[in-house]
């Protein structure tokens, strides 16, 4: 990306470029179609080979509609990274809601994430390419995700469900486990039941892996 | 990379292209200097902006020396990914050797990896860029690393030090934790003592994070 402008300064509400937010339900549907098409385009071709015309063709909208909501290819990519972050959060959060404990909630979150990543394998390529195309978005994605995990761990520690010496280190450890388990068991190979993966990690979080003596 | 040739087919012994392995101590030193220079060049500029002439300039060797050991920029990049994998393993393995238990060994491995990554921050950019430049090397790096972790966990389970229901899932979980803790606490910010990070993860592996009731 050419500039050091902050995400907040260039992406307005609901994912469009600043000042280009949709004002109608129809506009929001068009914006959604453009973001979904951008996920396909960049997921399959990568940022450099991907094009605005490829996105509008996939979305079935006119080129002008793209510029109604975005200023540039850089801007739609940046919006897409934030959109994928939001989509993961919105898919995973309800799965945790009825969990009986924080450990159960973390299991449910991982199982939901594995299932999400199987349906949206392009998320890996897009987030990973952001490290090179838009480092600020890459960093924001992981910093925000770790912060969210850290906050729910702290709340659970406050309720006495998990240890009270929990820190940001644990949040990053859990995020790292989840990201790599998704790479292995969603993007590379879907042969293992997501609940089996979540069970193994839940047991690790509940008891550790040391042998009981 | 243009072809689907296997790593073993294009990279010979000691990191050079097949058939171009150094035969003398001096040759091995030159090859080492080229690989170190390639890590700097690709780490700073990325694969596409990086050049063979940039590598030879940094290494202080003639362009001809490059072609004594490598066929192309693709080949030196592929060799570099494997070399970084090997360097991590060689740096981390001795740290685990005298550990009193497998949990202590995993702590020592993480602490060593954090210290390695602080000295070689370019490893993240290089391995991550391999996902796009040379997917086969990217995959081999993580598959090999997870396999190594899985083998040492299995051996420890056999000795009764860790639970006997350990699987590949645990190996990927531990690798993911370590990779993301290195990103956060080596590449982004060195403010936390590696031993503190290892202590938190060692305690997670030993006991889990559930509150004791």
UniProtKB/TrEMBL annotation, chains A, B:
Residues 51-70 bind DNA. Coiled coil: none annotated. Keywords: DNA-binding. Pfam families: TetR_N. Transmembrane segments: none annotated. Residues 1-26 are annotated as: Disordered. Residues 28-88 form the HTH tetR-type domain. This is TetR/AcrR family transcriptional regulator. It comes from Sphingomonas canadensis. The lineage of its organism: Bacteria, Pseudomonadati, Pseudomonadota, Alphaproteobacteria, Sphingomonadales.
């Amino acid at each position: 990306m050419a500039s050091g402008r902050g995400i907040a300064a260039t992406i307005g509400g609901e994912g469009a470029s600043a000042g280009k937010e949709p004002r109608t339900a129809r506009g929001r549907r068009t914006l959604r179609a453009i973001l979904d098409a951008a996920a396909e385009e960049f997921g399959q071709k990568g940022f450099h080979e991907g094009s605005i015309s490829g996105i509008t063709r996939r979305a079935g909208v006119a080129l002008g509609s793209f510029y109604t909501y975005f200023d540039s290819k850089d801007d739609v990519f940046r919006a897409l990274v934030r959109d994928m972050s939001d989509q993961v959060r919105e898919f995973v959060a309800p799965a945790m809601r009825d969990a009986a404990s924080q450990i159960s909630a973390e299991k449910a979150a991982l199982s939901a994430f594995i299932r999400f990543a199987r349906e949206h394998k392009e998320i890996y390529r897009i987030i990973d390419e952001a490290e090179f195309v838009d480092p600020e978005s890459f960093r924001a994605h992981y910093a925000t995700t770790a912060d969210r995990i850290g906050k729910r761990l702290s709340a659970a520690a406050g309720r006495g469900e998990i240890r009270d010496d929990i820190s940001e280190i644990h949040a990053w450890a859990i995020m790292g486990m989840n990201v790599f388990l998704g790479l292995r068991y969603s993007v590379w190979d879907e042969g293992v039941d997501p609940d089996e993966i979540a069970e193994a990690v839940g047991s690790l979080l509940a008891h550790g892996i040391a042998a009981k003596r």
